[in-house]
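Task card 7
Instruction: Convert sequence to structure tokens.
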Amino acid sequence: MVRGIKFVSIPVRDQDAALDFYTETMGFKVVTDQPFTSTQRWIELMIPGSETGLALFTPEGHESRIGQFQSIAFWCDDVFATAKALKAKGAKFTQEPKKEVWGASGVFQDPDGNQFALSSKGKAK
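Output:
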């Protein structure tokens, strides 16, 4: 049976810039960084304390996905504090964090313009 998600792929234009953002700004750790094709590397990252990883990779023919809203929501204990910390490291928010009926959320983007939700796992305090 399926036991979880190993990784989700984030389409990026510049793997070096993406790697810097996801390690330096987001705090993710490199699991794999190796050649994949003659023009791309396979870069797999882990979120500390999580079993789900991210791959910074764009399959040929899928370049149109770069810079779009991605169906990925990152959760944290405190959306407002996490957003403040990410902003201090240069992350740009396209939707400032706000309280919702179900919790709190905001939307940030990476250097390629990919947008992601930052969400609480439950109701915001």
